[in-house]
Amino acid sequence: MNDYSFQFKFTFLRILNSYSVFKKGEVMGIDKQDSVKSLFTAQSAKVDTNRGDAYYEALYTQCRARLDDLKKLAPLNNRMDFKESIEDEGLERRDFLKWASATTAMLMLPASFTPLVAEAAVMMNRVPVIWIELSDCAGNTEALIRSDGPKIDEIILDIISLEFNETLLAASGHQAEKQLEDAVEHFKGKYLLFVEGAVPMGLNGQYGTIGASAETFHDHLQRLAKDAAAIVAVGSCATFGGIPAAAPNPTDAVGVMDVVKGKPIINIPACPANPSNMVGVILHYVLTGGIPELDSLLRPKFAFGYRIHDNCERRAHFDAGEYVEEWGDEGAKNNFCLYKVGCKGPMTFNNCSIIRYNEGVNWPVGVGRGCIGCSEPDFWDKYAYERPMANANIKAPTGGVEKTVDEFGLGLLTAAGVGIAIHAAASAVAGKKDNEGEA
Asked: How far is Cα 301 from Cα 293, in angstroms, rounded to an integer?
């Protein structure tokens, strides 16, 4: 072992040991370490991408039976024929099969499921969807309908049997209410209820009312959720309260899962949610007749089983200790890591760094703006600022108050934390070698 590797190992081990101090003047005991480790090693946090042949064979049989049953049903709308739509938009079957293959991978299914996924996509108009909006900005509906060209995702969203959506509805007033009631009655127990927006609970729900009868958002949600097959909360507001629930939360806004009980709930957070994840949830339901595997926050693991930091194109700069120190500096011009100017990628779980937005063209970090953790609870109060956790003077997810970029490391006890600690050790060794060289 040469002097450099020995010095690196010694420095790294010394830094690891120094992280036993969790707060100033407080030693992290073994119980505290175990509790933090359990947060990231709990069963709900694990993504199992290989469950064995027996599991997938049984799942394949289940999906095959499900699709055979759906084939017997007539389409719920006759607006579009999938194959004709692809041809009309100038797309080839090869494009569709590529999409099906990529979607199969996104759903964490083996490649052998690709034909089933393709078949399920064609039959997505067999499952009714009712979409309601509460305390929201309609950003998720906008994300659903905005695209730069007619791609497969857009065609599929057009084919979905969307029975009700206030923003897209031609009818208004009593006619709109009647359309909603007819859809609920006709598809009782069968529809997926998509909810966009937070639920205001203050003043007995009077901060948000809808319709001529001034039904509160709370009662409106409860009434429609009662007959739904499952509820899909779309966007940060519907999942965790989002911006309406930010301090001081004057309307006492909460997420859907804080109101609806006894029903399957799927959370698709982010501001806005990615349309690909919406398609993925519906497609999974068409394919299996059930909801996807969820984490402890009721988010589908196929979309939120990834940490942004681990799949970021700027991760190499993070590992090399190359940061943007301030907006417009040389680091910014060279696409260095954005952690020091507030990127919350190390503590945010989402797949936007993989599938991106706007037909996969880009995402926030790609355009030079750090992640603000919008798919995490209370993101507006915890993460939406342009400085790292180190300088935020707030409680980190582990309960500790982080001090510096290097000290942020093992507070989270994750791969990113270890990476920061390695960077700290390497920086210390490199700095000493530079000083010796100058001497």
From this structure: 6
Strand-pairing partners, residue 199, are 254
Are 10 and 432 within 8 A, CB to CB? no
DSSP secondary structure of 222-264: HHHHHT-SEEEEESHHHHH-TGGGSTT-TT-EE-GGGT--SS-
User: How far are the Cα atoms of 10, 14, 170, 210, 325 from residue 425, in angstroms, in the given order?
Assistant: 9, 9, 62, 58, 20
Rounded Cα distance, 430 and 12, in Å: 12
Q: For residue range 120-152, what is the model confidence (pLDDT) as tens digits? A: 988 888 889 999 999 999 999 888 776 544 466
Beta bridge partners of 265: 231
Looking at the fold, whether 18 and 139 belong to one and the same domain comes out as no
State how far the Cα of 125 lies from the Cα of 276, in Å rounded to an integer: 17
Q: Within its chain, how far is the Cα of 334 from the centroid?
A: 28
**150: which 2 tokens?**
């007619």
> Domain limits at 185?
48-304
* Cα 225 to Cα 204: distance, rounded to the nearest angstrom: 19
Buried-state track 147-167, b at ≥16 Cβ within 10 A, e below 16: eeeebbbbbbbbbbbbbbbbe
Q: How many domains does the chain have?
A: 2
Residue pLDDT, tens place only, 46-71: 677 677 889 999 999 999 999 999 98
**Pair 34, 102 in one domain:** no
Mapped onto helix, strand or coil, the DSSP state of residue 332 is helix
Q: Is the pTM value of this prediction over 0.85?
A: no
Find out whether 241 and 254 touch, Cβ atoms under 8 Å: yes
